[in-house]
């Protein structure tokens, strides 16, 4: 019997895409026709979660199939060691040509981590302590961070984010058109949108500015939030966002999603005209979300659904289910084992994730199990951890006695924190006991403090040596402006 040909695999990876801002997830306003047609031909994982709502730790877990507690990567200033094997190493060994086009947010000298080729460098700095904001963003300096300026700068115009994604799309399409390699292809196309700065082209921005409902930030009742989240808002100075500012943020964000969708469409068309769709798996996902002002919270680095939940589509017509939705919670850490099984590759050692391949083929719900996510960011917030198990989501914050608990089936908008409700004391206790099997709060605190000290030393070293980052995307004059 002839051995079945291995499929090509194209993974389209965005940055900071709120799971709900997509037509295939039911948003009545956003225009995402290309993602929608991909979803119609594939399986949607409706309750996908990142394993850290922050770029570098999330992507490290995604590539290794290991939780942050095992990779040791918890913030955006840490480097994945080159001897930690990734799905790219495994797929190369299994006979694939492995290509990275665009964003992955690798830190350090190793900018490939198992990929044979990298077509475009990154837009963010490749070394901790290096400040590339002026070079990359010009007058939008600071607007890519979790800072008040990101909200104040929201509007219509252009930014390096939009230029970068256009360049990544060009490179990916040109690569497909000129490809000679006869091996099956595993390619990751990394977009930066819809990550802030919240700036988008005038046509799309004006469209959403007019049609989106106007929300009042004062309705979010910040004083009713968990104390750790009140501190979160205070640290980022976003407790007084105006109606007009929020309107601009959301208009720009929705516009960036639609612009990113146009880039997805270009790549789908390129796939169709080159390697073809008959034996090609196409995956879409994001590394984490963006709260977009819900609960008075913006960006990421928290465990509300807007930040921690991610869109996930797997399309392989004739092999995977089509127009199918699976509801059981899964983690981004499940991607690596799924890809490795799909490509006939050996499993990586000690993966925490679980292959979803059988569910994608049969449409059966994956096995229910605890879904975990962790945070040790360097913005002043205490370490925290999340457990999604069954209908409930539990969140613990180091240094606080009270926990957050939400019934995600009865309260999907997370408006009613049950953590201090005596009727749920037994549920809180049982879930906390399960979470503590995976997370040691005191160890997290010590690691958090240690990582901060290391970062300060590296930052000082960069200042003394003037070290220049490697393999960054070359921003050009005029790439950043606001109309």
Major sheet characteristics: 8 strands, mixed
- What do the pLDDT scores average to? 94
Question: Can you tell me the residue ranges where pLDDT is under 50 for at least 5 consecutive residues?
Answer: none
Distance between the termini: 63 Å
CATH superfamily: Alkaline Phosphatase, subunit A
Task: Tell me the strand order in the biggest sheet.
Answer: 5-4-7-1-9-11-2-12
The total count of helices amounts to 15
Question: Helix content range of the residues, please?
Answer: 25-40%
Radius of gyration of CA atoms, rounded to a whole number: 21 Å
CATH architecture type: 3-Layer(aba) Sandwich
Helix- and strand-based class?
Answer: alpha/beta
Strand content: 15-25%
Structural shape: globular
Total tally of structural domains: 1
CATH-defined topology: Alkaline Phosphatase, subunit A
Instruction: Give the number of DSSP strands.
Output: 18
Q: What is the level 1 CATH name?
A: Alpha Beta
Blueprint of the fold:
Layout: E1 8-14, H1 33-40, E2 42-45, E3 48-49, H2 55-64, H3 68-71, H4 87-93, E4 97-102, E5 117-120, H5 133-137, H6 148-152, E6 155-158, H7 160-178, E7 185-190, E8 199-200, H8 202-211, H9 227-236, H10 243-273, E9 280-286, H11 305-308, E10 309-310, E11 312-315, E12 324-326, E13 330-331, H12 335-342, H13 357-362, E14 371-375, E15 384-389, E16 392-397, E17 404-407, H14 425-435, H15 441-465, E18 481-482
Helix pairs in contact: 7-10, 8-10
